[in-house]
Specification:
single chain; about 170 residues; mainly alpha; 6 helices; about 0% strand
Length: about 170
């Protein structure tokens, strides 16, 4: 007798779909700032990073450890940040999330929200230190951008859950 249990029919298909859907949604979210939005101050959240963290916190098995490096490169190509900044910052967020995951016994929405908020704040502050001079007065705008991004995180989690098929009620 073996301990192998039968796999539900839709499980393998969901995993395969999420395997290609997650990087595509991260790349599309990285391209959203290219749309012609008219604003006097740039407070658009880092949607690519938010989607990456949403997928990472929902499904830790989807991305390989090197995936944020390539997705950060894609984001650097279109964001206007110095080349390599998103590659480094996104990879650091991913690795720190892995360390936190190994320490926590369970996670709920509040844990995910805190981890995502820390990743967003770290990335935006790191990007500010890399891209702008230290005497530039952008700290207030940066604070608003962090607050808006953190407030939108539950929506990103919900979108990732819907795309993964977990948001449907049965």
């Amino acid at each position: 007798m073996s301990d192998l249990r039968p796999v539900p029919i839709g499980t393998v298909d969901k995993w395969r779909r999420a395997r290609w859907l997650a990087p595509v949604t991260v790349m599309l979210a990285s391209l959203l700032p290219l749309l012609p939005f008219v604003s006097s101050i740039p407070i658009l959240p880092p949607l690519g990073l938010m989607m990456l963290m949403g997928w990472r916190l929902l499904r830790p098995d989807i991305f390989a450890p090197w995936a944020p490096l390539l997705l950060g490169f894609f984001d650097d190509l279109f964001s206007g940040q110095p080349m390599g900044s998103a590659m480094f910052l996104w990879t650091m967020c991913f690795l720190v999330t892995d360390v936190i995951d190994s320490r926590l016994v369970y996670r709920d929405l509040w844990h995910n929200w805190t981890i995502g908020a820390g990743a967003i704040a770290f990335t935006l502050i790191g990007g500010r230190l890399v891209a702008t001079p230290l005497n530039a007065h952008v700290d207030t705008v940066l604070l608003f951008q962090i607050l808006i991004s953190v407030a939108l995180l539950p929506l990103i989690f919900r979108i990732c859950a819907q795309l993964d098929g977990r948001g449907r009620r049965t």
